[in-house]
Amino acid sequence: MEQEELLPLLYRIGRGEQKAFASLYEKTHRHLYAVLLKILRQRDLAEEALQDAFVQIWRHADSYHRGRGTVLTWMVSIARYRALDIIRYKKVRPEQSLEDDVSISDNTQIKDEQTKLYHCIEELDNDQRQAISLAYFHGLSHEQVKHHLGSPLGTVKSWIRRGLNNLMQCLSL
């Protein structure tokens, strides 16, 4: 899946084109599902997270910016956030299911990545953490985050942008 192939689809999705969304889904859902299954270790939860991720991709296609990575990287990050949200809210641990055999080193790596992500999120200032949580974990638009936090739209966008930059630096991406 090349950027040149996915980017036009994402722009068309941002304009509400359902055929472009179906095409993007067909080209990427297996990859995203594999990522989610590796994190969640349960097929039903991975399917739930995949559906949630594609809802977010549909809703936020117009917010994608080339400078933040490839379309697929952006989509994987949305999927991972959905998986982490499920882990947090359903109190699921990746090692609970034996449905798919993952090596101990893979499981350890996942735990290490999750621990690092949680640490990096905790390092954000409160405004950035809240804005990112509402936008990425709860799927609110920037406009909805603005209303929820009672802050100007430009401020909310700045909190999110700076928070994501801080996360990327913390995670050494």
UniProtKB/TrEMBL annotation:
<dbReference type="InterPro" id="IPR036388">
    <property type="entry name" value="WH-like_DNA-bd_sf"/>
</dbReference>
<feature type="domain" description="RNA polymerase sigma-70 region 2">
    <location>
        <begin position="24"/>
        <end position="91"/>
    </location>
</feature>
<keyword id="KW-0731">Sigma factor</keyword>
<dbReference type="InterPro" id="IPR013324">
    <property type="entry name" value="RNA_pol_sigma_r3/r4-like"/>
</dbReference>
<dbReference type="InterPro" id="IPR014284">
    <property type="entry name" value="RNA_pol_sigma-70_dom"/>
</dbReference>
<dbReference type="InterPro" id="IPR013249">
    <property type="entry name" value="RNA_pol_sigma70_r4_t2"/>
</dbReference>
<protein>
    <submittedName>
        <fullName>Sigma-70 family RNA polymerase sigma factor</fullName>
    </submittedName>
</protein>
<comment type="similarity">
    <text>Belongs to the sigma-70 factor family. ECF subfamily.</text>
</comment>
<dbReference type="GO" id="GO:0016987">
    <property type="term" value="F:sigma factor activity"/>
</dbReference>
<dbReference type="GO" id="GO:0006352">
    <property type="term" value="P:DNA-templated transcription initiation"/>
</dbReference>
<feature type="domain" description="RNA polymerase sigma factor 70 region 4 type 2">
    <location>
        <begin position="116"/>
        <end position="166"/>
    </location>
</feature>
<dbReference type="InterPro" id="IPR039425">
    <property type="entry name" value="RNA_pol_sigma-70-like"/>
</dbReference>
<dbReference type="Pfam" id="PF04542">
    <property type="entry name" value="Sigma70_r2"/>
</dbReference>
<dbReference type="Pfam" id="PF08281">
    <property type="entry name" value="Sigma70_r4_2"/>
</dbReference>
<dbReference type="InterPro" id="IPR007627">
    <property type="entry name" value="RNA_pol_sigma70_r2"/>
</dbReference>
<keyword id="KW-0804">Transcription</keyword>
<keyword id="KW-0805">Transcription regulation</keyword>
<dbReference type="GO" id="GO:0003677">
    <property type="term" value="F:DNA binding"/>
</dbReference>
<dbReference type="InterPro" id="IPR013325">
    <property type="entry name" value="RNA_pol_sigma_r2"/>
</dbReference>
